[in-house]
Amino acid sequence: MGLEREGAHLTVIQNGKVIINLWNGYSDSESLREWNRNTKTVLFSTTKAIAALCLAMQIDRGRLSYDDLVVKYWPEYGQCGKHMTTVEDILTHKAGIPYLDNITIEDVANENRIMKIMEQAKPLWKPGTATGYHAVTFGWLIDGIFRKVDEKGRNIKTFLQEEIADKYGIDTTIGLSKEEFKSLARATQPGLLEYARDVLFDLRVIIMLAMMYAQPSNSLAARIRIHPSWLPLNFDTVALNDPNIVELNMAAIGGVSDAYNLAKLFSLAIDGTLLSNQTLAQIIRPTITNWHLEQVFLYPFVKEHVLVWTSRIRLPSTEYRF
């Protein structure tokens, strides 16, 4: 389907109606396992949007504000010069903690331990003064805030299950048990031909990749690619094919779903079911619009709450057109 060499699933929902729901190819080409309507995939950084949506629901409920200091809810986070970090700083990758040294799988599996590690982390820049992509740490930061503001002390994983998945029949989770792992498509890395194809579609890709991968081995981008050591970001490894890693609670990269359920989830986010129009307008408008050099990619991204902003999303009054 499309340009995917393995398999894929595409769903488009407009005004609550399913317009497109197609799948084809293999979920694992080596074993010739075909893709079906229930095949799930690891969502990688799309998980960040789900985490941010859950936090926005808490904002809708009056539990916190984007302008609030993190220490208002999580006092222990104020160590090592982080006391002026805002919730907005976390969501726009300004926290100054784009990676952590020497963190283990056992650390991540223990919620209280990972929160303690985040509390004691020393930022690489003064929070709020620069932005640099927090590929994995984003999830632990936002989850730490979330646990403090949720009325039941739930993490994002549990909130997603109870407040969205169970209520609306959406099969989307953060993490996946080993027993369910067989339903997951095997992720693969693009080859050189695919990278070349993508560059031809958008020449900005080669500029960004060149600036990121041409940096020295002690650069921030290089360190992020090897920390944590069990989750490397390189051209020949996909750590999220390991069931021991996929089952972890990682609200930045560990989401699991299929295209239909993911489309259904975000359809509920924009039709007023999960969020008010006021909060939705807040989260999809750009928050970083001035020219700046992104600390990790060394590329001047425009950002909103979570990732990057695209002008293709327009807001005529309170009507949302995607």
TrEMBL record:
InterPro entries linked: Beta-lactam-related, Beta-lactam/transpept-like, Beta-lactamase/esterase
Protein name: Beta-lactamase family protein
One Pfam entry name: Beta-lactamase
Beta-lactamase-related domain ranges (all copies): 5-287
